[in-house]
Write the structure tokens for this entry.
Amino acid sequence: MAMENPTTTGQVPSLNMPYRTFWEKTRRFQVALLFLLPSLILFSVFVFYPLFRTIYLSFFLTNQKGLPTVFVGFDNFIQLFQSADFLQSVKATFLFILYTVPASVVISLFLALLANEKLKGIHFFRTIFASSLGVSVAAASVTWLFIFNPTMGVLNRIISLFGIQEINWLADPHWALLAVSMTTIWLNLGFSFLIIFGGLQNIDQSLYESSSIDGAGYFYQLRRITIPMLSPTLFFIMTVSLINAFQTFGQIDLLTGGGPGQTTNLMVYAIYKDAFVNFNFGKASAEVVILFLLILIVTLLQFKFVEKKVHYQ
Amino acid sequence: MKRKMIVAVFLLMSSVLLSACSGLSHADDNRIQIVFWHSMAGPPLEALNKIVNDFNQSQDEIYVKPEYQGSYEESLAKFRRVGGTDNAPNIYQAQDIGSKYMIESGDIVPVQQLMDEEHYNMNQLERNIRNYYTVNGKLYSMPFNSSTPVVLYNADAFKKAGLDPNKPPETYSQFREAAKKLTQANKGMKGFSFLNYPWFFEELLAVQGGEYINQNNGRTGLATKATFNSQKGLNIFKWLREMQKDGTLANYGTSGDNESSGFLTQKVGMFMSSSASMAEMFKNAPFKVGVAYIPRPDNIERQGVVIGGASLWLSKGKSAKEEKAAFAFMKYMASPKSQADWHIHTGYFPINPGAYKEPIIIKNYKKTPQFKVAVNQFHDTKSTYATRGPMMTLMPQSRVIMSRAIDDLYQGKNLQQSLDTAADHVNEAIAQMNLANKK
């Protein structure tokens, strides 16, 4: 605290004070560190150590107990890039992102706009729209498993009403990824809706009032006021959904198990199989490192190009 | 004052809760506690819990604590982590294809050792099942839940299609013909279904006497190459492809639940199933369910089926007292009475043939003679390396790989090529494992 009010302790607030020790100079940093310490300890144990351990393992072959035995340099990585299976799972992951992220954002924006209207009983709908937030991935997947069931599923009953041939949602390579994406979009909706709705509620009402006086219509307001004012929220949701999509696991495990024909074998699922079924920790670690880099690059790109369009107040 | 009261009440409540919890986990502190990891869920879990409870009540020296550890794959991943440490369970239930890993891990004591010490009569256990778990002349684990594949069929639909429900098809061409008739005669029904679960492929290979890997199915040495892409392997794929072209083959992907519900709702006439789900099917089907031997090619003699399921392993590094206690429980599980209960409530085979004389089985067979078909198919098996089943550490991985080949089959890709690719992948994995294990 002495630093903030140097005159009371008789110190001169100058940067070039040769007699100040290093200990004193880094005083503020020390205090900051003290506050950060609890989370730093937790992070080192649960994030940093595993991170470096994974990078270390990715340069080794591992035996059947998962212990590193032979150093192979970048071999694991080279093999991955030559493996059609791995490239397929990268492709599936990007397709999955393409199917899920924009759709969840657009649908939840739409729902949030609806829920933002002042109507009688709107609270009921707000609760319903946010409700999928309270459903676990496992419970949702099992529910959707029933919906997709080829013999008794609701979905096939509905489409057969329209005279469309029944679809084997989870076993047909053309549909499986879409089916998993549908489940994921539904799962994402609750959270995205809640965040976007919160963002909408935060927009200053006077902006709408003054633009109404100027004669602006609903869609003009939407384009010129709502979307720009909401852009930080939308950006946040996009970034978070993107990272979540990269890390999708539960739905895949329960709905398709990565099949049919590897079409839904997303990267995290492939990593799980390599690590815990095949017990090939070296290869799995290399896949983790690649996934980490991919997420990093995509997020950086997002910050570089999309964030420019974000309007911070 | 009021706050103090509330705090006091909470403290009291939590202490009661805590003591209640600890009371649950230590039934009796003087008893030797045996931790038993298993992967049984659904009806088998109920049957298992009953056997464990009976054992705990039958004596007061040993207390067995069963712990569900997820599917076979999940629990094997856990065991690999704790095997050989203090955290390892006394008894661990490992899936058939995890056996080779267990043997090589060095974290287990072969049950043969305790059997010899206690002069346990090994011959009371079913020979074919013992054969599977015997490597280099030593029985490594205590068989427990053993099943084989069977074909389950809708007997009512058979009648409707003009087929004799008491004389199910046996060969590929007979199955193909029956599938056609079933599809034609029953609206909305496909004749046959083959789940993408590579165990069935392994079995259809063994029934022809085909070996899955070299070195006599890995039984006389470490396997170095996959051999399932042989003519015999191709036979299976060709047969399934023919039925696919006929439009009589249903595809449920990897979902056994969807397949069962398809069968129960009469969308599938015949399907390959584990004998372990027979009891459930008999109970739930609104029609008569028949049981048949698994199919074979027309020109190849039937060799029999490989035993599937799981067995019980003893952890190494436990005190001699605990080891003996764990083995005592294993003996109890293998007794005719336990096995008879187990068989009737699940469909797993009695690993102790003495069980067939138990009244509960005799009574049950009178009511549902179909049970017997599965048992007969199993007893008709000729003991060869093919029917003893493949032994390889990488079996779990080879199933992941084969599952892709079966996907290829359904997607209409070249059959020999799909099998060759799968074999190549298995060979690569073997080569890499050998490299990693060299040190």
About this structure: The first helix of chain A runs from residue 6 to 9. The two ends of chain A are 32 Å apart (CA to CA). Chain A is about 70% helix and 0% strand.
